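Notes, p. 3: input format for complexes.
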Amino acid sequence: MIVEAVPPPARSAIPNERRRALIKLNNLSKIYRGGTLALSDVDLTVGDGEFISILGPSGCGKSTLLRMIAGLGGISGGTIDWPQSRYDAHGEPIRDLGFVFQEPTLMPWATVFNNIYLPLKLAGVSRRDAKARIDEVIAMVGLEKFADAYPRQLSGGMKMRVSIARALVVKPRVLLLDEPFAALDEITRFRLNNDLLRLWQDQKWTVIFVTHSVFESVYLSNRIIVMSARPGRIIADLPITAPYPRGEAFRISSEYNEFCRITSNELSRAMVGVAEEEH
Amino acid sequence: MADNKTDTTVTASSPGEIPRSVRLLVPILLGIAVIGFWEFAVYYWKIPKFIFPAPSMIVQALIFDLPTLSASLWTTVKITLAAFFIASVLGICAAVLFIQSKILEISLFPYAVILQVTPVVAIAPFILIWVGLDHVERALLILATIVAFFPILSNTALGLKSVDHNLRNLFDLYGASRFQRLRELEFPSALPYILGGLKISGGLALIGSVVAEFVAGSGTGTGLAWRIVESGNRLNIPRMFAALLLLSILGVVIFFSLSWLERILLSKWHESAVRREN
Ligand SMILES: Nc1ncnc2c1ncn2[C@@H]1O[C@H](COP(=O)(O)OP(=O)(O)OP(=O)(O)O)[C@@H](O)[C@H]1O
Ligand SMILES: [Mg+2]
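Output follows (557 residues plus magnesium ion):
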């Protein structure tokens, strides 16, 4: 960054239509074996370098959507294209992504260090070569003192941070996060929000972030997708045009409040279906 | 770091828990009391020793017949441990094969069940005819292995299948190979199940080797089971008890060794072996 004479333009200055498409969901739908229609007709183009948040009522298929993007669980209808990725011999795209599942999903028999080492180990990287990188991500999530602890010795929030560190350790191009900060206190949450934003800007990641918090989604993303109650479909696609880097000043600005208001309105529209379903 | 250590250095037991010393002491005191009463009763009511020998006579028999009894004990130990080892290796390998291929599992598993549910006493004469005429020990080994095999197979297979599906997804995501999946995910997940299976099978291997020896009969047997039959025929009841005592001790040793192994391997992470403070 230092060597560049002209600073790069603020990232939100790139209009969405000018970004190169990284992931294209066409007419995607998912029916679970029991007959649950979890998603229907989802069309979404994820541009390179975007920070997209997904909001929607519980059970609307957000996790399902993320898992399908990651290639976990079959697709019932439609397609997912990765226009910029190479495809392997089985016709599967080489996705290069990190995934933070909704549950921490740690191996109980392995220490924090070994849990984070897993993706590198599976890729054939030796422990010695991986050490520096693992220590780096452990420090990033503030768990230096717990590298040798087992998951059972950690609190819920600490487990989630291990899971985040594990997703980051491979330096993925795309990061899928399923409510990663739900179990954390506000202060830690704000800190990790800022860390995530900084990393996203430095590393040129593409992030898809599922959350239940309107405030968090507005603070973080350049685009918010609102989904309706089951079957999940996209009912709003809101650009959050505020420039990056964003900080505390943004959090108290009237612009921020306005974005939160618009997003809340869309979300309550999505919730209407839920109320009806319960009657 | 300080937190990590607390639960291993904690020695004070929580209020509801019985301290270790008491847990050891109480059964020992009970044993001494029972043996004392037994000794007393035999003399007081003048129970003939060919019906119910006093503990002191059993100990005498044990010392007097130590050369024969220890040779027999060694035979039984050898057969039991060899059968246990073979059953463990075969059981774990078979379970690994089963989870690799559904076809293999559905075609072979019913036969494993048949082998398990058929009483070993009924199979014994066949095995003895086929391999036991010249090598009784080999027949005993096979029979004890058959008895010990199934719990290891079924427990390991269950364990390998009980992997958390989120962890499976994680391994999918990072493109783990079959072998990596087995070594890094399925085996560690299955370990508590495998150890449970081993604990059952350790006892069964001993039962198998004893039952097989009873069935094999005729003077060829040299293990502890045969000593019991033989002493019974000669109305040498103290020696019969002495052999029985050795068998019990062997069973206890096997059980505690396997429990100890289980604790060592799982103490760091598994709920069954971890001492929790809540
Ligand atoms: N493995 C499964 N088998 C059957 N149905 C499932 C499965 N997983 C999810 N579903 C159903 O699909 C729907 C969407 O689930 P999903 O987990 O994607 O919701 P979500 O939006 O992530 O909810 P939350 O915000 O509570 O995490 C739900 O109605 C759920 O019942
Ligand atoms: Mg979810």
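The CA atoms of residues 83 and 145 of chain B lie 5 Å apart.
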